[in-house]
Design goal:
It contains 19 helices and no strands. By secondary structure, the protein is mainly alpha-helical.
């Protein structure tokens, strides 16, 4: 950013004409969205001026609130609308700014996090019967949650002192709100918290689990909700397996009624839960394997590129679920438990091997599953695959990858 442009932004944000301030906020948001972080000769990087810009934007909203207190009875409706637009524009600009590189501003990000949490709590305690005010409030809550998500991603583990207040506010929104956009925004913010604090997130599961169950019942929220359940299942060391049982029951109940586009997220979630639950997953082995066998026969019109993309996503999810079920179950008689499904699994691998439109990730997942089958059933399984020329060709074409898996496995066995 040119220094003159930056100075003009700061100057215009202090203008008494609200329309100019709103326009400036929009310009800052647009510039932040399009700017690059690379430092070029004669150019001042935008991230070096975040502190002053964000403080100036916050000051705009604070001044506006002071003005409202002094002239509340005298304000006209048009002026109120303009002030609402200013607040929304200012927070939108901050949302864009906090997405950028602020690694040198940790103390400031902590300060901003404290401010925006306070602002969110004020909004959550505000009551209005006016529909326009309610819509503006929802939009402000959405923007602030996005800002807090950005701050969480920047602070990582340093966000921990704020997470108790954050999760109370987030869960209150999720339980009460019926707006899908805001619900999704809060889920993304919580996902950032999970990534930041890891196994310490376990303490929030009792309050957060009902929110996830709400998300599972809404098709528009479903993919993100299942993704977060997967995030929780993958937290190393966390005792979140205690909640996995309820998630499995809900997902199995939902699966028959979902459209095919929502099947891959469920299968991916099955995979994550299977790995987390270990041998406790045996209770769900039969219904899950039945689902995997059934959806593995899904057919598409290969002339349609969107259908080709979908079938590859579905097959990758199926293969991932098989792999995690195999790796999660550690009981001694695992081979006997899984033997009723081996024929169907090999048949599915054959279908995949014959598909010339398969993506590379699907091939890689296929090879991983073949490796897992070999670990359970040994050379007998590999010998049986010679009856399938298409599988043999795929194995030969990817023998280097299969060998790397074997070397890796043998290495860990040696350790």
């Amino acid at each position: 950013m040119n220094l003159n442009v930056f100075n003009q932004f700061i100057l215009d944000l202090s203008n008494e004409d609200l329309s100019i301030v709103i326009q400036t906020c929009d310009c800052i948001a647009e510039y932040a969205e399009s700017s690059k972080n690379e430092q070029e000769k004669g150019i001042i990087r935008l991230d070096y001026h975040y502190k002053k810009l964000i403080q100036a934007l916050i000051l705009c909203t604070e001044k506006m609130e002071i003005g409202e207190g002094e002239e509340e009875e005298e304000e006209e409706e048009e002026e109120e609308e303009e002030e609402n637009k200013l607040e929304i524009s200012a927070f939108f600009a901050i949302t864009r700014l906090t997405k950028k590189n602020v690694k040198y501003l940790t103390d400031d990000v902590i300060s901003w996090t404290r401010f925006f949490l306070q602002k969110l709590n004020i909004l959550l305690n505000a009551n209005s019967n006016d529909l326009n005010d309610q819509n503006d409030q929802k939009l402000l809550e959405l923007l602030i949650c996005s800002i807090l998500q950005n701050c969480t991603e920047k602070l990582e583990s340093k966000i921990f002192p704020f997470v108790d207040v954050m999760m109370v506010s987030y869960c209150n929104i999720l339980i009460q709100i019926k707006d899908n956009d805001l619900f999704l925004c809060v889920l993304y913010a919580i996902s950032a918290v999970i990534d930041a604090i890891g196994e310490k997130f376990e303490r929030f599961m009792i309050d957060f689990k009902p929110c996830l169950l709400i998300g599972l019942k809404n098709p528009e929220l479903f993919p993100v909700t299942t993704g977060i359940i997967g995030d929780i299942a993958r937290i190393p060391g966390a005792k979140t397996w205690a909640h996995c049982d309820e998630f499995m029951k809900e997902l199995l109940q939902i699966f028959p009624s979902v459209c095919k586009e929502l099947q891959p997220p469920i299968l991916i979630c099955f995979a994550d839960l299977a790995l987390k639950m270990d041998d406790d997953f045996i209770e769900y082995l039969q219904p899950v394997m039945h689902i995997l066998v059934k959806v593995s026969h899904t057919k598409i019109d290969k002339r349609d590129s969107n259908s080709v993309k979908f079938i590859n996503e579905l097959r990758e999810a199926i293969l991932g679920a098989y792999t995690n079920v195999f790796q999660g179950l550690k009981m001694q008689n695992i081979g006997i438990r899984l033997s009723p499904y081996v024929k169907d699994i090999i048949g599915f691998i054959s279908i995949v091997a014959q598909d010339r439109t398969r993506f590379r990730d699907v091939t890689t997942s296929c090879m991983g599953l073949i490796f897992d089958l070999k670990q359970i059933y040994g050379q007998i399984l590999m010998s049986s695959l010679t009856a399938y020329p298409e599988i043999t060709i795929m194995i030969n074409d990817n023998s280097a990858y299969l060998l790397s898996l074997e070397n890796k496995y043998n290495f860990f066995e040696y350790l």
